[in-house]
Amino acid sequence: MVNSHALTGDEDVAKEHTEMAPTEEDHSQHHDEETNREPAPEPAPCGADQAPSAPPADSETTEAGKAAGVAGPPSAEQEAPPGIEQHALQVAVAGGKPSLKGIHRYVPAFSGENGRISLYDFKANDANGDPVDLSRYRGKVVVVMNVASRCDFTAPMYSYMRELQRKYGGNEAFKILAFPCNQFLKREPNSAVEVCKFAEEKHGIRVGATVHFYEKVNVKGPEAHPLWKWLKMEVADPACWGNEIKWNFVKFVIDKQGRVARRVMHFNKVPEKQITRLLEQS
Questions:
Q1: pTM given for the model
Q2: Is 145 within the bounds of a domain?
Q3: Would 217 be classed as within a structural domain?
Q4: Do the domain assignments include residue 68?
Q5: pLDDT, tens only, 194-219
Q6: Does some domain include residue 208?
Q7: What's the number of domains the chain is made of?
Q8: Residue 240 annotated among the catalytic residues of the structure
Q9: Active-site residue identified among 46, 151, 196, 240
Q10: Which of 53, 211, 224, 264 is most solvent-facing, going by the fewest CB within 10 Å?
Q11: Helix (H, G, I), strand (E, B) or coil at 47
């Protein structure tokens, strides 16, 4: 075999490489060493207990860390904090400002009747500011809507409420819950008591009979009343506007079990056939 260094005229380098080349004796000795070497231990399976890579810190080091304010690893006895979504929902019920990003269904921090939330799990203040447990509407068909006295839809929607009052007013199983709201171009600057007077004097609404007025509330955003957070997350807008409330006089139809049966846009009326059908149900 021709040495490549000889082709370059570097005879000394060629001689050195020839002397450094391993002999057959060297190969035989290396083979014996490999044969007699003990096999390496197999790695422990995933999840198996393994010895720590470093010895635990002594008591003096631990105490020094505590004195310096260095937090150690959490113990197994400590409970894990609630998830982000769960925490946000709990804060929402308490009146905080949680981020609703990524939350597709509003679930208050109480379990509800039979593990499912209904109208009867909420409370609201009436127009006088007195707290009302909405379980008083148990077994009734209820229409919940946000109202305003200076909106383009005020006249037709109050007229519609009067129609419902005339048609179903004799049936104690039907009620309308009206919540004044000033979030949409400030179309409801009046107080809840002033709204009641406006409804009676201007539109012939028998306040406290078929139509029950509640305090002025927010119906959209993080400051929305818990009832309205639940309503809008139960059923999205039928015009694909999403779950958020977009304007005044949005209507939610509640069946006799306290569940949301339908959501109706601000300029539409609830089909009377559906109201009649829900009233006929047990």
A1: 0.62
A2: yes
A3: yes
A4: no
A5: 999 999 999 999 999 999 999 999 99
A6: yes
A7: 1
A8: no
A9: 151
A10: 53
A11: coil
